[in-house]
Write a structure and sequence with these properties.
- The protein has about 325 residues and is of the alpha/beta class.
- It has helices at about 15-25, 45-60, 75, 100-120, 135-140, 155-170, 205-210, 210-225, 225-235, 240-255, 305-320, and strands at about 5-10, 35-40, 65-70, 85, 125-130, 150-155, 180, 180-185, 190-195, 200, 205, 265-270, 280-285, 295.
- The protein has a six-stranded parallel sheet, sandwiched between helices. Strands 7-10-11 form a three-stranded antiparallel sheet.
- Helix 1 (about 15-25) packs across helix 10, helix 4 (about 100-120) packs parallel to helix 5 and helix 6 runs antiparallel to helix 8.
- The structure holds ligand NAX.
Length: about 325
C-alpha cells in the first residue's frame, strides 16, 4: 500500500460534499492502492451536520479510508494536504447580482488561500468549485504565494462533460465515442462551448452532425444554461454531476489525459490565445498525470468562435476588477 493522501473538502456538509466524499474515500482519485485521509471544513453552524456526514463515512467502512477530520478551522483542515477541493461558498440569494456574489464569496477565498499557503504541502493541488469559481481561484492563488500558481485550477469539467453528453445524444452514439470539445472562458453562461475540434467516432463532430444551426442555436445555449435547467427540474442545483466532474478533474490531474485527448480546465493564463496573463480562464489542457497541465496550443477559431470567447474573457476581466481589493 502507498502512503495515504490527505484530501481536504470545504463545504463538506453541502450537496456536492455529500456526493463527492464517498467517491474519494472509495479510491476514485488516487486509485485502489492508495489510502486517503479526509479533512472536512465547514462553517460553525453546519458543524453538527458535518459530524453526521462523518458518521456516515465511518459507517461505510471504506477499506482505503484511514481517517476523518471534521473542523471549522481552515488551518486544521488544510494541514499537510496533498489535494484540496474548495467547494464551500454561499449560494446566490434572491435578487443578488453576480457582482454581489463575487464580493460576498471573495473573502472566503482570501482566508482559505492563506491557510493553504501556511499549512498544506507545498506540492498541494487546489481545485476550486465554489462559484464564481474562476475568480475565487484567482483570489485563493493570490493568497498562497509560497505554492506555485500552476497548482491552482478551477472546475469547468462539468461544462466539458455536458458538452460531450449533448454531442453524444444528438449523434446517437455512446458518450465514450465523443472526444475533445472545449470550454473556453468563464464558468458562467458567457462560456464558449466549442465543437469545432470535437470528434465523434474519430470523425469531426461537424461532419457527423452536419447542422451548423444546431451547434449555434441549440448546443451552445444548452451547455451554457444546463445548470439553470437542472435547478428548474430538480429544485436544487447540480450536485451529483458536479461532484462527478470534480472527481474527473482531480483524476485527470493525477492520472493524465488519454493519448490524443484533452479536457477543459480553468487555469492561469500565460497569454495563450490572447487571454490576458494571470486570468483564470478555461482552456483545453493535457495532463501528464503528475499534477501538472499544459494548455493545448495552435487551435484555430472561426470569427464567430473568437467573438464568443472574447465576450467571456471580458467578463473575467470585469470580475478581476470587482475583486481587485482582495488581490
Ligand atoms: P450547498 O449550499 O449545498 O453547500 C455549500 C456548503 O458550503 C454549505 O454546507 C455551507 O455551510 C458551506 N460553506 C459556506 N461557506 C463556507 C466556508 N467559508 N468554509 C467552509 N464551508 C463553507 O452548495 P453546493 O450545491 O454543494 O455547491 C457548492 C458550490 O459549488 C456553490 O458555490 C455552487 O455555485 C458551486 N458549483 C460549481 C459548479 C462548477 O461547475 N464549478 C457546478 C455546481 C455548483 O453550482
Amino acid at each position: 500500500m502507498a502512503s495515504p493522501k490527505v484530501v481536504a473538502i470545504t463545504g463538506g456538509a453541502g450537496q456536492i460534499g455529500y456526493s463527492i466524499l464517498p467517491r474519494i474515500a472509495a479510491g476514485e482519485v488516487f486509485g485502489k492502492e492508495t489510502p486517503v485521509i479526509l479533512k472536512l471544513l465547514e462553517i460553525p453552524v453546519a458543524l453538527e451536520s458535518l459530524e453526521g456526514v462523518g458518521m456516515e463515512l465511518e459507517d461505510c467502512a471504506f477499506p482505503l479510508l484511514e481517517g476523518i477530520v471534521c473542523t471549522d478551522e481552515p488551518e486544521v483542515a488544510f494541514q499537510d494536504c496533498d489535494l484540496v477541493f474548495l467547494i464551500g461558498s454561499k449560494p446566490r440569494g434572491p435578487g443578488m447580482e453576480r457582482k454581489d456574489l463575487i464580493q460576498e464569496n471573495g473573502p472566503i477565498f482570501t482566508g482559505q488561500g492563506a491557510a493553504i499557503d501556511k499549512v498544506a504541502k507545498k506540492s498541494v493541488r487546489t481545485i476550486v468549485v465554489g462559484n464564481p469559481c474562476n475568480t475565487n481561484c484567482l483570489i485563493a492563488m493570490h493568497h498562497a504565494p509560497s505554492i506555485p500558481d500552476e497548482n491552482f485550477s478551477a472546475m469547468t469539467q462539468l461544462d466539458h462533460n455536458r458538452a460531450i453528453a449533448q454531442l453524444a445524444v444528438r449523434a446517437g452514439v455512446h458518450f465514450n465515442e465523443v472526444k475533445n470539445p472545449i470550454i473556453w472562458g468563464n464558468h458562467s453562461n458567457t462560456q464558449f462551448p466549442d465543437w469545432k475540434h470535437a470528434m465523434i467516432q474519430k470523425k469531426p463532430a461537424e461532419e457527423v452532425i452536419a447542422d451548423e444551426a444546431w451547434f449555434k442555436d441549440v448546443f451552445i445555449p444548452t451547455v451554457q444554461e444546463r445548470g439553470k435547467a437542472i435547478i428548474q427540474a430538480r429544485g436544487k442545483s447540480s450536485a451529483l454531476s458536479a461532484a462527478n466532474a470534480a472527481i474527473d478533474h482531480a483524476h485527470t490531474l493525477f492520472n493524465g489525459t488519454p493519448e490524443g485527448t484533452w479536457t477543459s480546465m480553468a487555469v492561469k493564463s500565460d497569454g495563450s490565445y490572447g487571454v490576458p496573463e494571470g486570468l483564470i480562464c478555461s482552456f483545453p489542457v493535457t495532463c501528464k498525470g503528475d499534477g501538472t497541465w499544459e494548455i493545448v496550443q495552435g487551435l484555430e477559431f472561426t470569427t464567430f468562435g473568437r467573438e464568443k470567447f472574447d465576450l467571456s474573457i471580458h467578463e473575467l476581466e470585469e470580475e478581476r476588477e470587482t475583486v481587485k481589493g482582495l488581490l
